[in-house]
Amino acid sequence: MARTRFHDLHTGTQLLFIAEFVVLCVIYFVGLEADRSYYPDLLPAYWEGQLISHFALFILPTQISILSVGLYNRKIRETFRGIIRRMFVSVALGYFISTAIYGLTPIDVLPGNLREWACLAAFICLVTLRYFALTARYQSLGRQRVLVLGAGERASIIERRMRRRSDRVSFDLVGFVKTRGDSPKGIESDPIIELTTSLEAYVFEQKIDEIVVAADERRSNLPVDSLFHCKLHGVEVTDILDFIERETGQIAVNLIYPSWVIYSNGFQSTNYLRNAFDWTFNTFLALFVLFLTWPFMLLTALLIKLEDGFKAPVLYKQERIGLNGKPFNIFKFRSMTTDAEKHGAQMAVKGDARVTKVGGVIRKYRIDELPQLYNVLRGEMGFVGPRPERPYFVRELVLSIPYYNQRHNVKPGLTGWAQLKYPYGSTEEDSLEKLKFDLYYIKHRSFLLDLLILVRTLEIVIFGKGV
């Protein structure tokens, strides 16, 4: 059977999510029953009238916060001490969110210190659950045995892209089967299998769950009858493009062929209802974020003035390429010296000497991006989408990177799938890697994916993973 997954939330993570939901439910109901003995006259009214509201305000903010700090990321590379730290942040953030909602709505807070004790119990129980989940290697749940048909240049992409154990957490790679027409420049370290029996016999003998078709030359070289037989007996047969897309969250640009784009799901055409909803959602969210962050924006402007003098500009605008290749001016807090581009346009690099002291802080926590709320309100940008690039660099990248122009088929965004999945980079190779993630987003674009990206962007802001 084909595996279903909400982007990078694989089987083990989904089960962990459910387990943590159950733990939070138990804590909530045990806390209510314990509180009943202290407030016998008050609790029944809350129990009968606002049970669902209190239930939601305890559990949902906590689990959304756990998602936002990256604890549902199957490829998280963190020590157990780091996981404890992140869990503490997520429980505290969930408590803060629920407190804010209580303050802004007519819902009455439960009597006593039930919420505080529940949060403490949640922290202890969730950390304990994580310990046992990691000990039991929950990431390996639902793990499939995978056989790759092909051992040439196309198949080697799997070996290069998925070298680490964390890259193969959802599958066990049995090996690569050579086919006629495979390039000699192929697999280097993974096992290459020379079949002495038919493909289907080997598949059934080794209990293979999935065959990935990655032959360099498919025409007249694939064992179609064997693949058909395996498919009928429940073995999943997957094209290498779909396999890489599913396991890495990116589209292998160098492997794309037109028929794959034409026949694959996704890359949906313009949907006017969705566009209208997107504009409404982005406008509302921009106003809400502006309401929350205007004090930080005012403080940032003052600090920039204090560092560079009151005659120095606070904002700078720069031409970028937006939807359908249309240029527009983007607005940001100035984080570099006023003469940063006296030698011409150049991409920012990590540890860039042109970045000011204040600029280093506001770039790290993405505060420099807040003026782009104006671009969102103007409809030039959304909250989620490929980051807009400058015309000078676009002209160069379009010539050197295939399909680069396709990232302009959607509105650019303040954050995006590439920003979550790929570290900061300034080279042409980095642009190619980011394009693979941008195309994945364009193919799978949906409201739920946008929400996932927005929630997980909080990890970048909270832990200062910006440039």
From TrEMBL:
Q: Which PANTHER family match?
A: COLANIC BIOSYNTHESIS UDP-GLUCOSE LIPID CARRIER TRANSFERASE (PTHR30576), UDP-GLUCOSE:UNDECAPRENYL-PHOSPHATE GLUCOSE-1-PHOSPHATE TRANSFERASE (PTHR30576:SF21)
Q: Which residues cross the membrane?
A: 12-31, 51-71, 83-102, 114-133, 284-304
Designated name of the protein: TIGR03013 family PEP-CTERM/XrtA system glycosyltransferase
User: Taxonomic lineage per UniProt?
Assistant: Bacteria, Pseudomonadati, Pseudomonadota, Gammaproteobacteria, Alteromonadales
Per UniProt, residues of the Bacterial sugar transferase domain are 280-462
Q: What compartments host this protein?
A: Membrane
Membrane topology category: Multi-pass membrane protein
- Taken from the record, one Pfam family name reads Bac_transf
Membership in a protein family: Belongs to the bacterial sugar transferase family.
Sorted UniProt keywords: Membrane, Transferase, Transmembrane, Transmembrane helix
